[in-house]
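Morning - S-adenosyl-L-homocysteine inputs below, output right after.
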Amino acid sequence: MSAQANRVMALSEWEDRWQEGKIGFHKPHVHKLLENNLDKIICGRKSVPLFFPLCGKAVDMKWLADMGHTVVGVEISEKGIKQFFEDQSLAYHEEPVPAIPGAKVFKSTDGKISIYQCDLYKFSSAIAGKFGGIWDRGALVAINPCDRPKYATLLVSLMDSNCRYLVSTLEYNPELYKGPPFFVSEENLNNLFGGACDIELLQCVDGFEDKHKTWGLESMTEKVYLLTPKAQ
Ligand code: SAH
């Protein structure tokens, strides 16, 4: 069993991180691996409905909306969602989501970006339809390892038949750091998504940063894969 298999982060711990400003995962710039592989996710299409699981306040959402795509994100932290719209100087309003008790949706006034504030596992294609593209950075690697099968089933159910799902994974020695982010191997990915999707490794980069040293790590590899639904 993997060293990290039993680690569980409660939703309240994520909310605490936002309250305390411990959001080292947030990047102020568009993610390089998304930028490099933009064509793979968009594929020349216009106005693609894009999904961002566990979106935080990723600036990538604004970047893609500015290109004419529509973005739906899911994030538990209301503080994080409000910071997104404020950081990006986007006017927004909030509405209840009748189908998910307790949830709210925050929508930019231009309607291009909607962020659902709820537990991801309460979300489904009944809420905002299916998607033509998915950008998964800090999501598959952030969820509790025991929830991965549930996560994969949900993500596959959100893909339309021509969906292009770009996922970033991290590889490091899981004996040295408890996560999150968690280690996700190619084998993990195949076990989770291989039944429903074709999986192609697009890029592999050295992702080692100073903060990883303080985590006790010596190396960190970031990989980006393209998942596409298998032909029916
Ligand atoms: N993708 C973002 C954020 C990564 S950190 C980025 O790359 O910057 C993971 C985020 O998921 C946190 O903001 C946390 O609050 C949120 N989160 C964790 N578990 C969640 C869940 N089950 N449902 C909704 N949001 C969740």
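Note: The pocket of S-adenosyl-L-homocysteine is lined by residues 11, 14, 25-26, 54-56, 58, 74-77, 80, 119-120, 137-139, 142 (CB under 6 Å).

O.
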